[in-house]
Design a protein that fits this description.
- The chain is α+β, with helices and mostly antiparallel strands and about 325 residues long.
- It has two domains: about 120 residues, Thermophilic metalloprotease-like, CATH 3.40.1830; about 190 residues, no CATH class.
- Helix content is about 25%, strand content about 30%.
- It contains eight helices and 19 strands.
- Strands 13-12-10-6-5-17-18-19 form an eight-stranded antiparallel beta sheet, covered by helices on one side.
- A hairpin with a 5-residue loop joins strand 5 and strand 6.
- The longest helix has 17 residues.
- The termini are far apart.
């Protein structure tokens, strides 16, 4: 437990620069109650006016928190959100960021991730992530190919790349913890090809079989495979066509992150690419839906306007 507290305090000091007297709100739920309490104790130990609230677990990633809490989220200095279902892609989080609140979300975070990946060198990760984000911003077309069979192209025109740096120093800054990716919302309606998920998606853990997605006109039209394909269909069907939108192209940049079957950490693994389905309103897209599912692709090759950014899982930036 002491090791966890130390890692949490390091994250609040190095990544959030929590100061004495700041109002810090930790939002958690029953599955992550222990971790929520650790972060509350760390904030209290730094002299913050620390508060802890527990919500009922949401039904899906991206489902809104209770309205009174959403209003209160805009009134604090710092938000720390370790919950089992992600609040990253919610209007409540977006509005809190717009109000100037510094915020980190840690959806589904495991104790091993806190110990390992929250102690990374985030200055180096930030530099790497910003370089990737700049390349994505300047690009017009992306192509991803993997040994498992992924071959997909998508337009990036008019979209801005973002860097998930873990450095949340300024009003309105937002990041995951652990951090480490450059990402962008592809232009809706442009993605074409096939995605073969061989890493992880949602709560599959490290996958023992693949899922094949057929993508036409920017949306997943068919999901093929065994048990995990059935599981994914069950996740996306309640959200209709918006839940099948190709929402994000992301590149992992955290050299301490490992593929463990927990998407929060998996999508940050250096040498991976992830493609998300569903909501992209948080990253400059036009689709708002209560679902955002990141699919991790292993040993990918990524080209932006024909320039190779990653080859066989080796980041060349």
């Amino acid at each position: 437990m002491d090791e966890l507290r130390k890692a949490a305090q390091t994250a609040l000091t190095n990544c959030l620069r929590v100061k004495k007297g700041e109002i810090v709100l930790v939002i958690t739920d029953e599955p992550l109650r222990k971790i929520g309490y650790i972060f509350w104790e760390a904030a209290k130990g730094l002299g913050a006016e620390a508060m802890l609230t527990e919500i009922i677990p949401r039904g899906s990633h991206g489902e809104e928190p209770p309205l009174p809490l959403a209003k209160f989220m805009k009134e604090v200095d710092v938000l720390i959100i370790p919950t089992s279902m992600s609040l990253s892609h919610t209007d409540a989080r977006r509005q809190a960021s717009q109000a100037g609140v510094r915020c980190v979300t840690l959806p589904g975070i495991r104790e091993e991730t806190i110990r390992r990946a929250l102690n990374a060198d985030y200055e180096k990760i930030a530099l790497r992530s910003r370089k990737v984000a700049q390349i994505l911003s300047e690009g017009k077309e992306a192509e991803v190919i993997t040994p498992a069979g992924t071959q997909i192209v998508m337009s990036l025109e008019g979209r801005r790349g973002h860097a998930d740096t873990g450095l949340v120093f300024n009003p309105g800054d937002f990041s995951n913890l652990p951090a480490g990716e450059g990402y962008i919302a592809p232009l809706e309606g442009t993605a074409e090809g096939k995605i073969v998920i061989d890493g992880a998606i949602a709560d599959t853990g490290v996958m023992d079989e693949t899922i094949e997605l057929t993508v036409k006109g920017g949306y997943v039209e068919e999901i093929k495979g065994g048990k995990w394909a059935k599981y994914l269909r069950e996740l996306v069907e309640p959200h209709g066509r918006p839940g099948r939108n190709i929402a994000e192209l992301g590149v992992g940049t955290n050299d301490k992150a490992k593929l463990i079957g927990n998407v929060l950490e998996d999508e940050k693994v250096m040498g991976t690419v992830h493609v998300a389905l569903g909501d992209n309103a948080s990253m400059g897209g036009k689709v708002s839906v209560a679902s955002h599912l990141d699919a991790i692709l292993l040993r990918p090759s990524l080209k932006i306007d024909g320039r190779t950014i990653m080859e066989g899982g080796k980041l060349l930036v």
